[in-house]
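Reviewers asked in the last cycle whether our approach scales beyond single polypeptides. To address this, we selected a multi-component target totalling 531 residues and predicted its structure end to end. The input consisted of the following lines:
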Amino acid sequence: MNIFKHEFKMNFKSTIIWSLSIAVLIFVFMSLFSTIAADADLMNEAIAQMPEELLMAFGMNNVDFASVLGYFSFIFLFCQVCLAIQASNYGISLVSVEEREMTADFLLAKPIARNKILTNKLLAVITNLTITNVVVWISSFVFLNMFRDGREYETKTLVMILLTIVLFQLFFLSVGVVLSLLMKRVRSVTPLSMALAFGMFVVNAFSGMLGDSKLELITPFKHFDPNYISANAAYDTPLVLISVSVILISIVGSYMLYQRRNIHTAV
Amino acid sequence: MNIFLREIKSNIKSLLIWSGIVLMISTVGFAKFSAYADNPDLLAILDNLPAAMLEAFNLNSFNLTTVTGFYGVMFAYFGLILSISAVMWGSDIISKEERDKTLEFSMSLPVSRGQVVWAKTAAVLFSSIVLALFTWGAIVVNAKQYQPDSKFYEFVALGSLALFIMQMIFLSIGILIACVVKQHKLSGSVAVSLLLGTYFISILSSLSDKLEFLKYFSPFTYFNAADFFRDAKFEPVFVWLSAGIIVIALAAGFFTYSKRDLYI
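The resulting structure, written as structure tokens, was:
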């Protein structure tokens, strides 16, 4: 329990900052909705005359800025970027921070099994991430209703989009943990988490385009594509399952690796 | 010179990782392109569209059936990736001494603080140049299979120059942050938030005409592929703006770092 409390406190400030920034992000983008929706109405008329292939080529076939959820899906992608960076930050630093700051020998000398340490740490960051998750839920609902400009939207679809956050966070968290354990020594966290989060984001950006390439299946941005969810009111189940299995494999792998890890110490 | 070589060596792994990411993205991208390349259906559609619409969607410069147009679309993503690497390198190269507790050692060397910072800047500059050249090469090699014309190579050369300037902006901002922020743990987060902030600003500025003034605040919008494709040159305002940011950021970084308290 002590470890849990300590870990939770350690990340608490950063959790608050991340949560507030995402709330501000949603606020700023949503507040522009009425302006953009008006433009989009005109644009939709033009788009309606364009052939399907062309729209697919530009990834515009699912995007509809004139509808509340269409616009929200667009914003949600950027929330996902933030969530991905936050979760992978926490994941990569979860156990590596002890070795970097030479506190690993102190922690491991305590009468607790390594498994238990890892469990406590994981639960603590998951609590932190859940706080952010809740803030995203609240701010989405509040700002959506504040700025929706009298346009209607399906609450169920919005809930479906927001529900994906849990798995999305867990994906980057668990992949971050296993990555940090696969490395001999993690010197600094941010560059790694940026590479992970933005690498996935950019690979996903191509998936909107026509043409087949299997590489994009690795990215959770694709697994939980808000545009797909809002357009079809359903999840892309096989892709979600890829995410779930990656999470499971990473967590099991982390426990195995941490059990046998050679801990780098000061002396 | 020793510091320079030492830093290049320590940065090699990170350089390889970023090169891998660039390679992956250009490979995925050009694999996608095979679906468009000279696709007759798409060409027929483009021919039938009214000229005004082509203009509105930038379809003239970004004709996706040509490899040139495709590069124009991909340009933004390369800009994002290279900017991230640059801002990370810039802030890390300065702050890592404090983090790894090697600062006392490097400060006891018979060189001034300014020289240490200069040598480090030169080292990350070197890495950025290598990454920029690698990106250029990866694009040209990947594009070869589609037999691009000479105009494509000119466009890519111009694009690579734009990417390099963006790298320089973010590199100098990263160095400035690490030099100014006293808590070494914070400098990475400040760099990330700045990068995310400017990226979101660039998205906002493209959403509506009324928000276009925002483009002065985000380096991501300084070089618009559609514009320099059409004019075959950059907008002078933004070139000067970039140069100004780079010079001011580096100068401010050196001055503060030579005077500030170091965390040991």
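Chain B has a mean pLDDT of 87. We regard this as preliminary and will revisit it once experimental data from Aim 1 are available.
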